[in-house]
Specification:
By secondary structure, the protein is α+β, with helices and mostly antiparallel strands. It is built from 16 helices and 29 strands. 28% of the residues lie in helices and 20% in strands. The two termini are 44 Å apart.
Length: 809
C-alpha cells in the first residue's frame, strides 16, 4: 500500500509539474484575464486600415483665409523606391521597399542565400511559388491587379516576354489579368493562384500595358521571409484587428512653444505628415554598392503660421550597404525660418514583424506573464534588458482611453533611465531594433513608448499574442538657427537572431534560454557539432538522444532492476494488504520491512525521470531559440516535416475539422494533422503496458488507468511541439524499450534464489544452503513463511468517548 501510495504521489506531482510548465507551451493561448470589450478602447490609428498608397485627402488649414500663405507644390502621386536586390549575385542580404507617402518602410525581405543558392530564410508557412512583391492594388472599374513596384532581381523583373519586340520584365503600371490562363479578379485572387504552383515551376502572366495584352513567363522561386510587412499582406497568419501602417515614420514633435503630447501620434494643429506624400530628393542608384533614398517634407506653412511658428522641413533618408543587415537612417528637422526656434521630432519604430508560427511556437520570456509573437525590447543603463510583452500592451490599451500603451521612460526620469542602448520589436527567431551610431548609447531622446498597432476591440479572443506592436522615440528639443537643422543618425538592425551576429551589435540579450540555459547551450553546441558531421539536423538529434541515453544507462539499468523487483514483490504486498486490511499502521510497517529485506527503494525508479526532465526542457528551449533548426528538414527530398522547429504538418485539416480543435490559435491541435506526436503517444503507451506490473487490486488497477489517461492527455498537449522534439521522444522511447528488454534478459529469472530480489551480496536473502543452490528456498517462499508465523496484531485500546459539551451548555 505504501509503495502504491508513494508511487501515485510522485507520479501526480511529476505530472502536475510538467503540466504547469508545458501547458503554456502547447495548450491554446489563455485570455490572460484581459478586460472585456466593454472597457474603453484605444484605437491606435482610426484610418490606418487604408493602404498607404491609396489616394487620401490630407487635412489642412482653411485655404480661403485672408492671411493664407502659399504652400510649395506637392507631388500628386506616391511612388515606391527600393534598396537592395533579390539577385543572389548583388551581394545584398535584403530587399527594402520604401513608400514616399509617409517616407516609411513598407516591406523588408531577407534575400540571403545558402551555398546551394536557395534562400537562407524563407516563409515557412507558404508552400507555393513567389513571383515578387509588386505592391498590387485592386481596380475600381475592371478585374485585375495593378503593379506599383518591381523589385530588382525578383522573378517578375526577370520575366521573359513571349512577344517579339517587347522587353523582358514586368513594369510598374501593368495590370495583371490572368495567371496560366486563369483570370484573376483582384490581388487576393492572383495570390491564391500562385499558392497552387510549386517553386521552380514556370507561370505565364497575362498583363495589360497601355490597353495592350502581353504575356510573360515567370519562373517562380521560394517565398522569401518578409521580415517587415503590411498587416494586409501577411497571409493566413495575420489576424483581425491589426492595422496597416508603414514602419519608421516620423513627425514634428516640437516647434516654437508647442510640443507633441505622448497621447497623440501627431500634432492636432498640423496636417498629417504620416500620410502626406514626401518629396524624393535622392533616388537609389542601380549600381552595386551603397544605396540611398532621401526624402523631404515641407510642413504646412499655413498651419505653422497659425501656430506662430516659422517654416520647417522634415528630413528622412535610408542607406543600405551590401552584405549587411543594417539600414542606416538619418532623420531631422530643418529650420526654414529667419529666426532660431525650438525643434524636435518623433520617430516611430518598425511594425508588422513576421508572425510565422505564432499559433504553435512559444517564445521564451523572462516575464511570468509570457511573451507574444511581437514584443518590445529595450535596454537602458538603469533597467538593463527589458521585454515588454504583447499581453501587457493590450491590457494597457484597454485600460486607457487614449495615449500610448506604455511610456518606457520620460523627461523627468533619471539620466541612467534615459540612456538607451537599443530598442526594437522582437519575434521568435528575428529582431528589428534601433541602435545608436558607434558604441555610445542614445542621448538624443527624452521619451520612449511601446505602442499597440491594432484596434483592441477587433482583436479575436485567444489570438491576442499575434497583435501588432511598435514603439516611438521623442527627441530632445533643440534651438536650431535659421537654415540649420537638427539631425540624428539611427541604425536599424533587421535580421536573424544568430548569437555571433547579435553580439556584434550588442543585442545578445535578445536570445533568451530561460532557467535551463546551462543545459540548453551545451546541447545546442553539441547538436551543431553533430550536424557538421552528419549534415542533417534530424540525424543529429537522434545521435544526441542516443548519447544522452547512453550516459544514463546505469540509471536505466537501475530502473529496470527496480521494475523487476516491483513485479516480484507484488503478490506478497497483496497478501500483506489482505492480512492487515483493517490495520493501516501494521500494513505499512509490514510493507516497509518487506521492502527493506528485498533491498527495494520505491523512490529509485523515479530518479531517471527527474534527471531526464531538465534535459527534455533544455532541448525544447534549444529548439525554441536556435534559428539553425528553423527550416532544417527531416529529409531534403520531402516537403513534409520541412521545419524541425515546427510541427510536422502532415495534412491540412483546418477546412473541415472543428474550430475548437483546428483553429489557428483558437484550437487545441491547430490546422494541421501531425503524425509524429501520434507515434510518440503510441510508444509511451507501449512502454507503459510492457513494463508496468499487473494490477494486484482494484486500487492499483485504477491507478494504472489514471496513468494511461495521463499519457493520452500528455499526447494531446504535445500535439503542437516541434517535430525535432518528437524525434527526441521517439528515439528515447525506442532506446528505453530496447534497454529494458536487454536488462531484463541479463537478470536472474523470477524466484531463482535471492539474487532475483535482493541483489548480489544481500545477507538477508541468502538461505542456509547458499544462494541459488538446489535445496534453497526462494525469497518469496521465506517471506510467505514469515508472514504466516507472525502473531496477529494486538487489538487497539478503546478510545475514550469525548463528552458532548453542547448538551452541558
Amino acid at each position: 500500500m505504501e509503495r502504491r501510495l508513494l508511487s501515485w504521489v510522485i507520479a501526480s506531482t511529476a505530472f502536475l509539474f510538467i503540466y504547469i510548465a508545458l501547458n503554456g507551451m502547447f495548450g491554446p493561448p489563455r485570455n490572460q484575464n484581459l478586460p472585456g470589450n466593454g472597457d474603453a478602447d484605444v484605437v491606435a490609428d482610426a484610418d490606418a486600415d487604408a493602404l498607404p498608397d491609396a489616394d487620401l485627402a490630407v487635412p489642412d488649414a482653411d485655404p480661403d483665409a485672408e492671411d493664407a500663405i502659399e504652400e510649395p507644390p506637392r507631388p500628386e502621386k506616391a511612388s515606391y523606391q527600393t534598396l537592395g536586390s533579390f539577385d543572389p549575385n548583388s551581394g545584398f542580404l535584403m530587399l527594402v521597399y520604401l513608400n514616399s507617402r509617409g517616407a516609411g518602410i513598407e516591406r523588408v525581405e531577407l534575400t540571403e542565400r545558402k551555398e546551394n543558392g536557395r534562400l537562407k530564410y524563407r516563409r515557412v508557412d507558404v508552400l507555393g511559388g513567389y513571383a515578387g512583391y509588386m505592391g498590387l492594388t485592386n481596380l475600381d472599374d475592371r478585374d485585375g491587379a495593378r503593379v506599383n513596384v518591381i523589385g530588382p532581381g525578383t522573378p517578375v523583373a526577370l520575366a521573359r516576354s513571349l512577344q517579339d519586340g517587347i522587353a523582358d520584365g514586368l513594369q510598374a503600371g501593368d495590370i495583371i489579368t490572368a495567371v496560366n490562363e486563369v483570370s484573376v479578379a483582384d490581388r487576393l485572387a492572383y495570390e491564391a493562384v500562385l499558392t497552387e504552383i510549386e517553386p521552380g515551376k514556370p507561370a505565364t502572366l497575362t498583363v495589360l500595358r497601355d490597353e495592350q495584352p502581353l504575356k510573360y513567363e515567370v519562373t517562380l522561386t521560394e517565398h522569401p521571409l518578409d521580415l517587415i510587412r503590411m498587416s494586409s499582406r501577411g497571409g493566413a497568419d495575420e489576424i483581425e484587428g491589426n492595422l496597416d501602417r508603414l514602419s519608421c515614420l516620423m513627425t514634428l514633435a516640437g516647434v516654437g512653444n508647442r510640443e507633441l503630447k505622448e497621447s497623440d501620434r501627431e500634432m492636432p494643429s498640423l496636417p498629417t505628415q504620416h500620410r502626406e506624400i514626401w518629396d524624393v530628393v535622392e533616388q537609389p542608384s542601380a549600381d552595386i554598392g551603397p544605396q540611398t533614398a532621401a526624402y523631404r517634407l515641407p510642413v504646412s506653412r499655413r498651419a505653422l503660421d497659425r501656430m506662430e511658428a516659422a517654416p520647417v522641413d522634415l528630413l528622412h533618408s535610408y542607406t543600405l550597404q551590401p552584405g549587411s543587415y543594417i539600414i542606416d537612417m538619418e532623420v531631422g528637422v530643418e529650420n526654414q525660418g529667419e529666426e532660431a526656434q525650438e525643434l524636435a521630432y518623433r520617430l516611430e519604430g518598425p511594425n508588422g514583424i513576421t508572425l510565422e508560427g505564432w499559433w504553435y511556437s512559444n517564445k521564451i520570456s523572462p516575464n511570468f506573464g509570457g511573451a507574444g509573437a511581437r514584443d518590445v525590447i529595450y535596454r537602458t543603463a538603469a533597467d538593463g534588458h527589458v521585454l515588454w510583452g504583447t499581453y501587457p500592451l493590450i491590457k494597457e490599451a484597454r485600460d486607457k482611453t487614449s495615449g500610448p500603451a506604455k511610456v518606457l521612460f520620460a523627461p523627468q526620469d533619471s539620466e541612467a533611465s534615459r540612456s538607451l542602448n537599443y530598442i526594437g520589436v522582437d519575434a521568435q527567431y528575428f529582431t528589428v531594433a534601433y541602435l545608436p551610431e558607434g558604441e555610445a548609447s542614445f542621448d538624443q531622446y527624452k521619451r520612449a513608448g511601446a505602442t499597440l498597432v491594432a484596434d483592441v476591440s477587433d482583436l479575436p479572443k485567444h489570438k491576442e499574442r499575434a497583435a501588432n506592436t511598435s514603439f516611438f522615440l521623442d527627441s530632445q528639443s533643440v534651438s536650431v538657427a535659421p537654415g540649420e537643422s537638427l539631425k540624428h543618425r539611427v541604425r536599424m538592425f533587421a535580421g536573424p537572431k544568430q548569437e555571433e551576429l547579435l553580439a556584434t551589435y550588442g543585442l545578445s540579450d535578445a536570445i533568451y534560454y530561460g532557467w535551463f540555459s546551462m543545459i540548453a547551450r551545451p546541447l545546442q553546441q553539441l547538436l551543431h557539432l553533430l550536424k557538421m558531421i552528419v549534415q542533417n539536423y534530424a540525424v543529429a538529434i537522434v545521435l544526441l538522444t542516443l548519447m544522452v541515453r547512453l550516459l544514463m544507462f546505469p540509471l536505466g539499468r537501475r530502473a529496470a532492476v527496480h521494475a523487476q523487483k516491483m513485479q516480484e514483490l507484488a503478490p506478497e504486498l497483496k497478501k500483506i494488504g489482505e492480512k492487515y486490511k483493517d490495520d493501516i499502521e501494521a500494513r505499512l510497517k509490514a510493507q516497509r520491512e518487506l521492502q527493506q529485506r528485498a533491498g527495494f527503494n520505491p523512490l529509485s525508479g523515479c530518479l531517471p525521470m527527474f534527471i531526464q526532465l531538465p534535459i527534455f526542457i533544455g532541448l525544447y528551449r534549444c529548439l525554441s531559440v536556435d534559428i539553425e533548426l528553423r527550416q532544417a528538414a527531416l529529409s531534403p527530398a520531402l516537403q513534409w516535416c520541412s521545419n524541425l522547429a515546427a510541427p510536422d504538418m502532415l495534412a491540412y485539416w483546418g477546412d473541415w475539422m472543428w474550430e475548437y480543435f483546428a483553429g489557428r490559435g483558437t484550437g487545441w491541435l491547430g490546422p494541421y494533422f501531425n503524425i509524429l506526436p501520434m507515434i510518440v503517444m503510441v510508444l509511451f503507451l507501449l512502454q507503459q503496458k510492457m513494463f508496468m506490473p499487473p494490477a494486484t487490486d482494484e486500487q492499483t488497477a485504477m491507478t494504472q488507468k489514471v496513468m494511461t489517461f495521463m499519457t493520452l492527455f500528455m499526447g494531446f498537449l504535445f500535439f503542437r511541439v516541434p517535430s525535432g522534439l518528437c524525434i527526441y521522444f521517439i528515439t528515447s522511447s525506442l532506446w528505453g524499450i530496447a534497454e529494458r528488454k536487454l536488462v531484463k534478459k541479463s537478470l536472474p529469472p523470477k524466484g531463482e534464489g535471492s539474487l532475483a530480489l535482493a541483489g548480489a551480496g544481500d545477507s538477508v536473502a541468502a538461505g542456509p544452503q547458499g544462494a541459488g543452490g538446489s535445496g534453497s528456498k526462494s525469497f518469496a517462499d521465506r517471506v510467505r513463511e514469515r508472514i504466516a508465523n507472525e502473531p496477529p496484531p494486538a487489538p487497539r485500546p478503546a478510545q475514550r468517548k469525548r463528552p458532548n459539551l453542547k448538551k452541558k451548555r
